[in-house]
Amino acid sequence: QVQLVESGGDLVQAGGSLRLSCQIIGGTFGAYPVWWYRRTPGKQRELVASITRGGDENCADSVRGRFTISRDVAWKTVYLQMDRLKPGDTAVYYCHSGADWGRGTQVTVSS
């Protein structure tokens, strides 16, 4: 059974930084791409960033240049480095891989 466990969410001021982690427990790390999504109440789920099996990275236009996705194969963890945060980045951030989703981690950016 595969589990995705997110961590790193917090309350931060605008302009600050956070690093989210998605630890993948069980399964074969790298067997699937990994995506970071976010959801704000009343809005649709938004794809934020992805990393392919081969390690190719991509970020949504709304966060490109501010967010970076990366992975540590040894620790079976995918990271989302978020810099120059804005209040509009406030959301619950979810990790997704294969058929599995994490429970999410709350990011709140105050103005």
Can I get a quick summary?
The radius of gyration is 13 Å and the shape is globular.
Descriptive account of the structure:
With 111 residues, the chain is mainly beta. 0% of the residues lie in helices and 52% in strands. It has no helices and 11 strands. Strands 2, 4, 5, 6, 9, 10 and 11 form a 7-stranded mixed sheet that branches. It has a 4-stranded antiparallel sheet with strand order 1-3-8-7, with no helix packed on it. A hairpin with a 2-residue loop joins strand 9 and strand 10.
Key traits:
111 residues, mainly beta, 7-stranded mixed sheet, 4-stranded antiparallel sheet, 52% strand
Q: Let me know the largest β-sheet.
A: 7 strands, mixed
Oligomer: single chain
How does the helix and strand content classify structurally? mainly beta
What is the rounded Rg?
A: 13 Å
The residue ranges in which pLDDT falls below 50 over 5 or more consecutive positions are: none
End-to-end separation in angstroms reads 40 Å
The DSSP helix count reads: 0
Q: What is the approximate shape? A: globular
Encode the helix/strand succession as letters.
EEEEEEEEEEE
Average pLDDT: 95
Amount of beta strand: over 45%
**Number of extended strands:** 11
- Share of helix among residues? under 10%
SSE diagram, text form:
Layout: E1 3-7, E2 11-13, E3 18-25, E4 34-39, E5 46-51, E6 57-59, E7 67-72, E8 77-82, E9 91-97, E10 100-101, E11 105-110
Parallel strand pairs: 2-11
Antiparallel strand pairs: 1-3, 3-8, 4-5, 4-9, 5-6, 7-8, 9-10, 9-11
